[in-house]
Amino acid sequence: MRLLGVDTSSSHASVAIVENGRIISEKIHGREASFSADRTHWKNSHAETLLPLIESTLGAAALSLGDISGFAVAIGPGSFTGLRIGLSTVKGLAYGCNVAAVGISTLHASAARECNFNGVICALLDARKNEMYAALFRRRGGSLERLTEDGVMSFGTLIDILHKFGSAQRILLTGAGVTEYGNLVTECLGSHVRVRPQGNLPSVASAVALLGEVRCASGEAGPLASLVPHYLHSSEPQSGALKLG
Q: pTM, whole model, 2 decimals?
C-alpha cells in the first residue's frame, strides 16, 4: 500500500508518501520561518502552496497521483483554517482518484514520531489565548499507548496533569507547541522533563501517513463525507482525566 499524508494544522505544512511502513518521500513547507510568524500569512500560504507541495513530493518519488493507494490527513486539533485547507484538498483528491482517505489526530501523529524514547510523551500545540492543545501517550518499545484524549487547556492544567506522573517517570515534550511552552514546563517540573527540538524529527505528515496506512490496511477508512475536522474549544469538556496503564 502506498499512502500520501498531509498536515496543515500548524505553520509548517508537510506532505509525505509512505509505502509498506517506510517513508519514501516527504516535504516540509516553511520550516525556515518562525513559528511565531504572522498566522494570516501562513494560513494563506497553505492555500497557495499545498497542491504544489503535493506535486513536489510525488515528483521526488517519481510517482503520480494514480500511483497512490489512499490518503491520510491531520484532522486536528490545530489551526481552524489550516485544517479546512488540508481536509478539502485531500477529500477532493481522494474523490478524484476513487481511493480511501482517513483522518488522524495531529497530536497522535506528533507523538508517533518519537520512536527512540521510552516513557511518557506529551504532544503540544499552541491554541492561542494562553491555552494549548495537548495529549499524553506512553511509548514502550514499538507500542504507543494513549493516556489522555486530545484536550484544550491552560498551562496550569497541563502542569497539574503532568504532576500526576510524579518525578520518577521520564517525560518528553514534543510537537509545534514546545516552542511556546517547552521551557516553561521544564522550569516547573524539573530535569526529568525533556524538550524535543522539532527540526530533528520527520514531518508530522509522515506520521499521519504511517498511521493512516495501518488504518486503511485494517479496513477502517469510512466514507469521505465522514471525514471532518476535530476542532477543540475552551467551552468543550476538558479531557484531562488520565487512563493510566
A: 0.89
